């Protein structure tokens, strides 16, 4: 089987091109895809926290970094075919994607998502950022955050709340969100903000 499976957490052994095609399928066929980048730290958190492992079950998880690659070698007898990470893969997808897509950026400290939106728009002018929201909100504000995302009607939602916050948010809210692609992106917004 083309995946690393530990305690119910499945990390797909998939190439960058295969991920791009899964993303395009979701965007074009209007089905929903939750994508997560699983590094060793995230895997460890999931193995120690059954509720996090359960939240990850609805994700396409891909391998991110040396730690999880070593884990694959130990438990599966082989390395992943490609080493992927969100900070490289998401900009590469946005660059390769010629069809115009709309994005919502959720997460990071106040001001960061706005700066990231400006830079992403300059770098990938075919796409449009239709909304931003910082990632320091109370649980009681979640419904309002979800409503603001749906009001902006993005194709793609990037969620930068760290682990486990970003994957938990996606898992709990996916059925209320209209976006077709939901991605946990870690520190991407901080990088994109410059
Ligand atoms: N973050 C957030 N809200 C939180 C915690 C983190 O918006 O409650 C953001 C943080 O500002 C950063 C991103 O999530 O932009 C990744 O955070 P961090 O590096 O702490 O998480 P890790 O990638 O280590 O899981």
Description:
With 194 residues, the protein is α/β, with parallel strands linked by helices. 46% of the residues lie in helices and 20% in strands. It contains 9 helices and 8 strands. The strands form 2 sheets. Strands 4-3-8-7-5-6 form a 6-stranded parallel beta sheet, sandwiched between helices. The radius of gyration is 16 Å and the shape is globular. The model has no long low-confidence stretch (mean pLDDT 96). The structure holds uridine-5'-diphosphate. The site of uridine-5'-diphosphate has 14 residues, from helix 9. Keywords: Glycosyltransferase, Transferase. This is Glycosyl transferase.
SSE topology:
Elements: E1 3-6, E2 9-12, H1 16-29, E3 33-38, H2 40-48, H3 50-55, E4 60-63, H4 66-76, H5 86-96, E5 102-107, H6 112-123, E6 128-133, H7 142-152, E7 156-160, H8 165-173, E8 181-184, H9 188-193
Parallel strand pairs: 3-4, 3-8, 5-6, 5-7, 7-8
Antiparallel strand pairs: 1-2
The structure holds uridine-5'-diphosphate (UDP).
Uridine-5'-diphosphate is lined by residues 107-109, 135-136, 160-163, 165, 186-187, 189-190.
GO molecular function: hexosyltransferase activity
Organism: Methylobacterium variabile
Protein name: Glycosyl transferase
């Amino acid at each position: 089987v083309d995946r690393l499976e530990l305690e119910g957490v499945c990390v797909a052994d998939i190439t960058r091109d295969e991920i791009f095609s899964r993303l395009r399928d979701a965007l074009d066929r209007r089905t929903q895809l939750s994508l997560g980048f699983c590094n060793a730290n995230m895997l460890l958190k999931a193995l120690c926290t059954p509720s996090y492992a359960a939240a990850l079950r609805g994700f396409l998880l891909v391998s991110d970094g040396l730690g999880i690659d070593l884990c694959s070698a130990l438990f599966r007898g082989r390395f992943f075919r490609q080493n992927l990470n969100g900070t490289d893969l998401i900009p590469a997808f946005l660059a390769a994607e010629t069809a115009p897509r709309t994005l919502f950026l959720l997460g990071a400290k106040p001001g960061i998502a706005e700066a990231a939106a400006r830079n992403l728009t300059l770098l990938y002018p075919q796409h449009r950022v239709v909304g931003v929201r910082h990632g320091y909100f109370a649980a009681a504000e979640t419904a309002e955050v979800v409503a603001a995302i749906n009001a902006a009607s993005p194709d793609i939602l990037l969620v930068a709340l760290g682990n486990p916050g970003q994957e938990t948010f996606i898992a709990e809210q996916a059925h209320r969100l209209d976006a077709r692609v939901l991605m946990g992106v870690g520190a991407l917004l901080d990088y994109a903000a410059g």
